[in-house]
Specification:
6% strand, mainly alpha, two-stranded parallel sheet, transmembrane, EC 3.1.1.11, elongated
Amino acid sequence: MKETDIMEKPIAAGLSNSGNHHQKPKNKSKKLLILALSSTLLLVGAVVGIVAGVTKSENSGRSHAIVKSTCSSTLYPDLCISAISNSEGAMLKVSNQKDVIEVSINITVKAVEDNYFRVKKLCGLKNISHRGKIALHDCLETIDETLDELHKAIVDLHQYPNKKSLNQHADDLKTLLSSAITNQETCLDGFSHDETDKNLRDKLKEGQEEVEHMCSNALAMIKNMTDTDIANYEAKMGTTNNRKLKEDQNNGDGIQWPEWLSAGDRRLLQSSSVKPDVVVAADGSGNFRTVAAAVAAAPEKSSKRYVIRIKAGVYRENVEVPKKKTNIMFMGDGRRNTIITGSRNVVDGSTTFNSATVASFN
């Protein structure tokens, strides 16, 4: 081996050792920096998490307080609160009184849909009486009407309080929820007291009564909200406007009209020369001989009143107005002159829902 080889090795080794000696402090500094950054990020994340948790807790607490306060005006406050609390994501949608009502109605819609499938399942059972089959069919029809009414109420709530006057909003919402309550009672009333029909009724009773109570809660909350808003508005506008409002309701003639009757319909009823869209006359002098035929010919989902004048006479028929035939108004020739009477009755096997008769009207 050459002397130069021997001499170079230590020098090379020395250089190598010297390089490693100077590199260690840099690596250590990098590790410390990474650890410091990681600790900082963890600390920031923890702080953000704590703040988010506190904010979420505060929002949740506010939502619960709003729900509890709004539900306190109902007949079934525990049901009102539990229905919203147990519905996934419902609390996140609550920031005011109107939100509570809308969430409550949406939950009620789901309950009505559950009842629909329950009735459909019962329709498939064997050994159901004729009366029972009719009653189940009536329930399906009333459930369908209830869903329509609740969906309309939700739309009206979205528009509240800007689309119509406060009084009109209040009347429409209360009418829709009142009708939905009645539908549940109508469904259960259709079953006879025979053992078979009674069993069917018992299978539906819990679901129907739950929806009835939920609709009752929504109605109470709507009344509380609209009454407060109307009172605040009237106080802001002063007593002159209050007096004018009452005069408008009476139309200045002392007649106390039902709250649900619109101003346009009041004027229509007061008019001495209402032009009907069609005329029913048993003697053939009108457009139709029967009321049912006139209803069948009426437009569906009409946006304006469709007036059917029924001339003097006795019309022995059962008149059914499908829900698609909206805004129909019957106008007779006097309480004792125009009479509609049908032959269906509960004793013969018809349900109350299908046995209603219009005896006489103006």
